[in-house]
Amino acid sequence: MRYAGIVVAGGSARRLSGVDKPALSVGGKPLLARAIHALGGAERVIVVGPRRPGFDVVWTREPVPGTGPVAALAAGLAVVPDDVEAVAVLAADLPGVRRS
Predict the structure, then answer these.
(1) With DSSP H G I counted as helix, E B as strand and the rest as coil, what are the percentages for the chain, rounded to 5?
(2) In this predicted model, what pLDDT tens digit does every residue of 26-47 receive, in sequence order?
(3) Is residue 81 in a domain?
(4) Under a CB-based contact definition with an 8 Å cutoff, are residues 49 and 9 in contact?
């Protein structure tokens, strides 16, 4: 099955005093890298949030950054290719996520 992946990675980290949660490392690997790796079979991986160096993905932002996960999902869906059959959506702060 051809699918695209969306990683929602643009939260304000209010509960972490502004720390960039997707950049936090678990087991030596940033959380964002773990989410992107879990989508390794996707036709396209889209990250909704501020650009971070070192990732070969499509970057996008919601029209008004920080307006929440529904706006982020809509921004990601706007750049999903028309020819994929499904979309997998992940948060960027899932330490145990992996490919299945």
Answers:
(1) 25, 25, 55
(2) 999 999 999 999 999 999 999 9
(3) no
(4) yes
Give the C-alpha separation, 87 to 58, whole Å. Answer: 14
b/e per residue 32-44 (b: at least 16 CB within 10 A): bbbbbebbeebeb
Tally the domains of the chain.
1
The per-residue DSSP string of 42-78 comes to -SEEEEESS--TT--SEEE--SSTTS-HHHHHHHHHT
- Structure token digits, residue 4: 């695209």
pLDDT below 70 — which residues of the chain?
11-18
Query: In which domain, by residue range, is 57 found?
Result: 11-61
